[in-house]
Structures are given as C-alpha cells and as structure tokens.
Structure to design on (178 residues):
C-alpha cells in the first residue's frame, strides 16, 4: 500500500511534549516516540530492536492464544510491528492485551473506540514522561486509532494528529542515506 503522508500540525511542532521528537526525512515531517513508560515508571523502549532506525516500543502482549513480545514502530501513525511469536489469522482479528515487559502490570484501560464503527471498549495506555501526557491505542488489531492525550495542546491539534496514519509499510527509500 502507498504511503499517504499527512502533515504534522505546525501548532504541535512548537509545543512538542517530552517523549516525542520531530524528524524530517526527505523533506517530510514525522513524529517519533522517544520515551514511554508503564504506570510504574519502567521504560517501554527497546534500544536493541530498531524499526526504521529508531528504538521500538516493546510490549508484553497476549493475542488470542499467544503471549510474547511485540515491538511497535515508534514512528507516529505507522502500524509496523514485529512479533516474537507467529500470530495466526484468527489472532489477527482479535484484541491485544498488553502488559509491561518489565513488571507485568496491565497497560489496558476502558475506552470506547469511535473509529469507523470499531466499537472496541479496550485501549492500551502508554505514558509519556512526566506522568500526565499519554498515548491511547485501540486494542483491536488492525484498527488504526491512536490518540495523544496532552495537557497543553488544544484538542483540535490532537484531533489532527489522530488522523496521521501510514497504512502499509513506510517506504524504505525515505529512510535511506540519513
Ligand atoms: Zn512496569
Ligand atoms: Zn478501534
């Protein structure tokens, strides 16, 4: 599938929350998650597993009948993932239950997903540094809904950010030679 590039709102770039950085690749704007924590303050970033050259977000995940590690692309809006297990076709139509890979605490919360009639009532909560700002990701596999909850940024800006999605692979040639 083709990469559909969405512009990052300028209002957001001037007030980037801690834990999110802005990178330009081939003249295009991308937001990259730099740091996330579980509720108990353990880092969820995996330096040793890099996706598109950046540390990935590591979660202990239960999907259908499998449990193992998943590594999620830190590029905002990308849905690339690596699994330490092989999800079956049935698993890929189910939900993710995520836990901290260090202490095992649940990262789930109740939240109704309103994206295109998804209706999922569970989300994964990832805390940005400072303990106030967070990212909510719909727990239904394949649902692209991801939301930034940030105190000092107006809601219309976070609404625009929510619409940034890269379906399919981020084109690798965008990341070459940088
Ligand atoms: Zn933890
Ligand atoms: Zn959803």
């Amino acid at each position: 599938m083709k990469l559909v590039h969405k512009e990052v709102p300028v209002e957001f770039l001037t007030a980037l929350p801690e834990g999110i950085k802005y990178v330009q690749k081939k003249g295009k704007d991308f937001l990259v998650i730099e740091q996330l924590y579980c509720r108990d303050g353990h880092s969820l970033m995996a330096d040793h597993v890099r996706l598109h050259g950046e540390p990935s977000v590591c979660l202990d995940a239960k999907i259908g009948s499998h449990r193992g590690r998943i590594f999620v692309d830190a590029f905002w809006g990308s849905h690339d993932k690596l699994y330490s297990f092989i999800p079956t076709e049935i698993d890929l139509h189910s939900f993710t239950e995520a836990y901290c890979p260090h202490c095992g605490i649940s990262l789930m919360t109740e939240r109704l997903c309103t994206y295109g009639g998804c209706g999922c009532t569970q989300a994964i909560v990832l805390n940005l540094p400072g303990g106030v700002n967070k990212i909510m990701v719909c727990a239904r596999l394949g649902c692209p809904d991801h939301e930034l909850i940030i105190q000092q940024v107006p809601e219309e800006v976070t609404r625009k950010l929510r619409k940034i999605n890269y379906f399919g692979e981020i084109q690798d040639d965008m990341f070459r030679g940088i």
Notes: The mean pLDDT is 86. The radius of gyration is 16 Å.
